[in-house]
Input
Amino acid sequence: MHAAGRPARRAVLTGGLAAAGAALAGCAPASTPKATTAAPEPRPATPEAAFARLMAGNARWVSGDLDHPDRDPERRALVAAAQDPFAVILTCIDSRVAPELVFDTGLGDLYVLRTGGQAIGPVVTGSVEYGPMTGGTPLIVVLGHQRCGAIEASYKSLKDGAPLPGNLQAIVKAVEPAYLLTAQDPGADPVDTMIHNQIRVTADDLRANSDLAPLVKKGALAVVGAYYSLDTGKVEVLTGAPA
Output
């Protein structure tokens, strides 16, 4: 890992020779890609700016009007020697929840950690801390999601008193605080209630972490808990959104 300076973002030019050649041949393509001429965006330096960048990207993901930023060989070369992501995303291993897609970001924009049900332990917590503590990354998002299989399996294991095989039981143990909250008030869908509780518990724990709490207190860091809908693609903020 490299905690580097802050590389500028560069616009991606599309279209070019293929479209020009088709036009010269008298066979215009059905739709001509538009060149992107926007000025490079600076890396968000505050929790508010980082949060706004992520949510704007999610709005594009929901609508399908995507920018696909920072995904070309030029960007690869730019960040090869150094990185400076503007957010940390702790999410699930689920194949349908890919933060770079969900927030329409690109290479070098995010630190991404994936564990079953956003389960945390010392190594995961240390990995979350890396960006904020070494490079001033201003935002952490704990991103749970609809129909989480890890939470469903853990809920059933704890409810039935039937441990899961192998190291899967470590996930069950890690998410047990969310289960205990759910047992008190399960709601209409206990598994979905537990998913929401796990997001809040994890975000609250990180926000109160002895190393991260001072950064949160002085406004240099925000820890957001959010829920991703597999059906709509929308990210719903549950807790900790910067003002």
